[in-house]
Amino acid sequence: MEGSKTEEKVCISRVDADRLLRGYGKMADALRSAGSWGQKFGDSECFDEASVSAQMYSLRSRILSVEDTEERMFLYYYYIKRVTLEGCAQALCVSLRTVSRIKNRALDSIIEKMS
To answer: Are 46 and 103 in contact (CB under 8 A)?
Structure first.
């Protein structure tokens, strides 16, 4: 047996993926509103600006690597540009019900990329 490393699959739900992706917007807001990162969070290591930027880059990369154009556009508008579901439906020229389906498929695509 070559190396006894076991691969661990990360299993997350759509709710967890949604929460993770929403974090991108919150991090972006925090970076924009903090004239100086140190003024907002102090020198706390848990709020390291470089670490937050790296997390944002990672999330953005995952979003932009989704193959389906409609799903990728939804993820970009909704999580990065922070457009409402209604606004995403208009931008994608689909109904609100259809954009909800696109959201579920897009979250499944993100989950697949994370596992």
So the answer is: no
Give alpha helix (H) positions in 34-84: 37-41, 49-64, 69-75
pTM given for the model: 0.73
Residues with Cβ within 8 Å of residue 79, at least 6 apart in sequence: 21, 22, 24, 25, 59, 63
pLDDT tens sequence for the chain (115 residues): 444 444 455 577 889 889 888 888 888 777 777 654 455 555 554 556 777 788 888 888 888 899 999 999 999 999 988 999 999 999 999 999 999 999 999 999 988 887 7
* Tokens linked to 111: 């989950």
